[in-house]
């Protein structure tokens, strides 16, 4: 006789689906997964900035906060609220959540809940022309992105240690306003003599995006009250990463111009952290493989500093 294949039970069928596929029927606002470029979600400034950038002009709505750090209004409050409701809805679904990156413990990779295509459209239509104007070398093309939500709260991740991003150009958008503290401190570019010198402190505003190179050292100041949530888009340019200029820059590490500013030292990465800031249990736990600055890039008094530490 002919064997009839047993139909898969619902649970068995579900087991073969990715979390992204299992989330489809649970979506709160299906429009979010189609396009983020709706009039009620994208600010008029963002449209004007992108239109000017496609023509090769920097629109006056783009604020140069400090050398290499720019900001403009990207999303409306309505979008920010809708987006965060969707993230909360996913969190409540019980579907698996991966850490957004090696440093943030709390948040969600939005590419993995079904938003990759919608963010790719935003990247290609709005972010790319702006980045190409501001950072032409790193932005000849954008062919991938890692996009995620991070969350800062006093009893979770209160802030984030100084670091650089695994990104060619980073777009970081604050998605809410019910918090105090939690600014963003910027220092110098990795591998340059001023890598660990204080450059600028940025204050987040809901819907406003801050744009910088992934190589710029920065850290999230501790939150004082409430919680801050940001959508971060790491843009990748494979052609740039394959270039000789990129490789040369990675290999060339300039000698530091002097002792680092206290605001710029990293307990995760810096060998001399303890000479400038007292270690705590939390910082010690993360300080297992410090490497910065490399031997050839040490400032004059570093040997003495390490002895003090």
Commentary on this structure:
α3 (44-54) crosses α5. 28% of the residues lie in helices and 22% in strands. It is an alpha+beta fold and 309 residues long. It is built from ten helices and twelve strands.
Brief description of this entry?
By secondary structure, this protein is an alpha+beta fold. The protein has helices spanning 10-15, 19-23, 44-54, 77-92, 116-134, 238-241, 244-251, 273-276, 281-286, 302-308; strands spanning 63-66, 69-73, 107-109, 144-153, 160-163, 169-174, 179-181, 184-189, 200-202, 208-213, 216-220, 223-236.
What's the topology here?
Blueprint (H helix, E strand, L loop, with lengths): L9 H6 L3 H5 L20 H11 L8 E4 L2 E5 L3 H16 L14 E3 L6 H19 L9 E10 L6 E4 L5 E6 L4 E3 L2 E6 L10 E3 L5 E6 L2 E5 L2 E14 L1 H4 L2 H8 L21 H4 L4 H6 L15 H7 L1
Antiparallel strand pairs: 1-2, 2-10, 3-4, 4-12, 5-11, 6-10, 6-12, 7-12, 8-9, 8-11
Number of helices: 10
> Describe the biggest sheet?
8 strands, antiparallel
Average pLDDT taken over every residue: 93
Cα(first) to Cα(last) distance is 81 Å
Overall morphology? globular
Please give the number of β-strands: 12
Order of helices and strands: HHHEEHEHEEEEEEEEEHHHHH
Beta-strand content estimate: 15-25%
Provide the gyration radius in Å: 22 Å
Secondary structural class: alpha+beta
**Which residues form runs of ≥5 with pLDDT under 50?**
none
Residues in helices, as a percent range = 25-40%
């Amino acid at each position: 006789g002919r064997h009839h294949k047993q139909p898969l039970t619902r649970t068995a069928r579900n087991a073969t689906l990715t979390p992204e596929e299992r989330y489809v029927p649970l979506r709160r606002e299906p429009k979010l997964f189609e396009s983020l470029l709706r009039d009620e979600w994208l600010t008029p400034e963002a449209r004007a900035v992108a239109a000017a950038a496609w023509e090769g002009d920097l629109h006056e709505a783009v604020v140069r906060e400090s050398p290499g750090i720019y900001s403009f209004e990207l999303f409306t409050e309505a979008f920010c609220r809708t987006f965060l409701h969707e993230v909360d809805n996913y969190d409540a679904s019980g579907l698996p959540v991966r850490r957004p990156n090696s440093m943030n413990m709390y948040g969600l990779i939005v590419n993995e809940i079904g938003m990759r295509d919608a963010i790719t459209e935003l990247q290609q239509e709005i972010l790319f022309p702006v980045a190409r104007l501001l950072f032409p070398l790193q932005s000849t093309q954008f062919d991938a992105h890692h996009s995620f939500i991070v969350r800062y709260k006093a009893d979770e991740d209160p802030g984030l240690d100084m670091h650089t991003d695994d990104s060619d150009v980073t777009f970081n958008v604050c998605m809410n306003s019910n918090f105090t503290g939690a600014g963003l401190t910027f220092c110098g570019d990795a591998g340059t003599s001023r890598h660990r010198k204080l450059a600028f402190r940025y204050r987040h505003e809901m819907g406003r995006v801050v744009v910088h190179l992934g190589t710029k050292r920065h850290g999230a100041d501790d939150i004082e009250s409430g919680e801050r949530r940001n959508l971060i888009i790491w843009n990748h340019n494979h052609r740039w990463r394959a270039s000789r200029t990129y490789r040369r820059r990675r290999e060339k590490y300039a000698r530091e111009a002097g002792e680092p500013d206290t605001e710029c030292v990293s307990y995760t990465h810096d060998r001399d952290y303890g000479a400038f800031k007292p270690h705590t249990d939390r910082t010690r736990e993360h300080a297992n493989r410090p490497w910065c600055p490399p031997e050839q890039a040490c400032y004059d008094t570093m040997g003495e500093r390490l002895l003090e530490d």
